[in-house]
Amino acid sequence: MRAKNAFVLVFLSIFIGWITLPGYATAETTASERIAVALVIDTSGSMAETDPNHLRKTAADIFVDMLSPEDHVGIVSFATEATELVPMQQVGDTANKQTIKNTLASITEVNGNTNYRAALEKAEEQLESIDDPAVRKVILFLTDGVPEPDYAQREDTVFMTAYMDSVWETTARLGQKDIAVYPLGFGTVDTSILQRIATDTRGEAKFLGSAGDIAVNFVDVLRTLKNRQGFWNESVALSGESVVPFQVDGYTSQVTMAVTYDTAGTDVFIRPVNSEAWNDRISIQKNEQYSILTMNQTEEELAGDWELVITGTGNAQLFGDKDLTLKSWMISPQANTQVPMDEPIDLVVEVDGELSDEMAVQGVVSKNGAVEFETIPLILEKGQYVGTYENVDQGGSYILETQIISGETVITSSSVSVSVQQLPVLKSDQELDGDIFKIGESQTLTGYLELDDQLLDGSQRTVINSMNLVATYSDGRQEIIPMQDAGPESGADETAGDGVYTAELPLSEEGDYSVSLVAQGTTPQGNFTLEEDSGDYRVISVGAVSGKVTDEALYTKPGSVVSVPVQLKNDSKRSETIQLSVEAEDAVAKEQSLTLEPGETSEMDIVLALDDSAPLGAKSVSITMQAEDSLTQTQSFGTEIQLFSGSAYFQKKTLDFMTKNGLFVGVLVSLPIVIIALGRLIYVLKLKQALSISRSFVYAKADDPENAQEWLLPKKVDTKLIVLGGEDKEAVLSLEGAKIPYRMIVKVETSPARFKCWEGYRTLSKTYIPVHIKIETTPPGIFKLDGEVHTNKEIFDQDAFESGGYRFIYKAEKSLAEETKARNVLEGKM
């Protein structure tokens, strides 16, 4: 019983970092925190001796309980054959976890051989069902023995060599697919085999003294995968109530604690030290031998001092992890990769969360366990923090740590381990940077290894087991293409055995791709797996360019030049250069070219020169498009041009002009008529208005102004007589007093207007009056106005003059008076 409890205690420390029980919102999960794990468990006959207490069953149950709901899990048992116990699926809620655990009873039954390849292939098959590129795929491979698919043939060298070759083909394929394998071996395992599995897949091999060490090694792997900060790993002797203090800071989004105990009835809870309890933010899950507690914080409502309270007897083991709102991830290099010595290491770090102005991101490097470390400042470029470590001057294990700091304080950190070795460098002569290819095109990529600037061609002690081009689609699918060094017969390779490998990019399906080269081989120091990012590219359809003539009613005459308007549309997703040529009898046209951007529509004219001898009638014109890119689809188009004789052409041209510009011509012709008619209308209306104004003469004897009388002038164009010193039947007034009789003629006149339309427009001015009042006297008569003697003069409103012993004052209505005043101002009368 104690051995089983001890295993459970240790195993809990592995998976505490995997917990994410349902609760309040935490910081946004980054893509690299989402994992899909294929747990592969050895159930061969030897497990009866190495695990007689069926600890693997308990471990698998706890493993399921500790996974986050958004994670994926599949479980495979293997012996002679591999069996899928739990298909790959999202972990989901507590009920689904229980369903998964209920299927694990069979792993307690042991029998058969140890078939590594079948187990790895079944795990690969499970992980292939995950097509989300943001989910990290991992295999945890637990075994206690060497590969032995058939006990009867274990001594058959030919059989075992072929079998191990198939295992290495499988691990190479897993490495190319970025599926890391973490072998955990105990018992009679062959450490070199497990190490190569890890190397081929960029995982990490762990070699254990016994089954009790499994959990301890899981901790390092799983905490790295989940990028969490551990703060507890201690034992407590219980006797009544035990209190363990801990802190929650403002950068913490979730705290996960696990407490294991060996006495039934042990109680566990947490409480704040100086604040009220936040029970709605705390979740406790109790099992027979352990309890799991989680605290979720959305802002800083849980920040402060807390206590874990355990009540019971016996021994308890405590584990604690924190999820932070700020996290930094080493994107490149990946964990457990191999790096050539004397080659710089490019660091690429992704940060999840918002940095304040006081914060910075830096890299820290330590070599081979040395206490001293080197700091590399990282700068932000295109959403990622990048830097280069140049001092790769010794082989061994390098710990590359990324830190978010504020002043001297490290807020959060994460690290990866890489192995620096005397390795060749993987290179390529091509680097893709968003290149665009069409379906049907071809593009060759090269890959080769260099050591000390020397191309490795196989004659050196470095052996290249495989070199592959790995193309990853935007939806996560991958295509692995073996690269060849077998000469022209193998494809695009020019020379066999020269160490330069070639492969064609996959260009058969539209979409966005990223591509990398993966080389696997051996050196005298051991196996290696190298990867080189070759960039991104896009595959598009072949595309098409269409054209049409935009004017189908073209005509001209022999010996002339005609412009044929055309419109071209580029339906391709890439720039296209088009050559246009014209075919027409008795006519010539210069070839033209045009470059169209993706989706662009452009118009242009093709100038066609016709011979003098071209026959009259319809002439067919064919326009051929030829794309510079032979894959681009084009289609000829054309039109007909009507040829007329000179006179017919002139008539047609005139008719077309009138047809097309009829409105304009109509307006142009009718405008003068309208202007004249409108002016005459204005003139008539203004004249009528001016004549309708009341006008009068107020007159009285010069020596008797008090007895004034008024005479109204006619409201029409007219002439009236006033007789002074006599009588006249035609006179409207006869005034006595003049010694010698004479006549005063009063005329109501209009302005002399030869063109009444222009006179009408003149009346629109306030200073212009179309009606005039004039005074004339017959001899010997005179009249005095403003001290001057006159016999003929135009008068205006309020003008006062004297004649024949009488004083006359001319008056007009106010509306006219204002106009008259304005006129007087302009004429200098006021």
UniProtKB/TrEMBL annotation:
Transmembrane segments: 663-685
Annotated keywords: Membrane, Transmembrane, Transmembrane helix
Lineage: superkingdom: Bacteria
Residue span(s) of domain VWFA: 36-225
Keyword flag Membrane: yes
Record-given protein name: von willebrand factor type a
Source organism of the structure: Trichococcus pasteurii
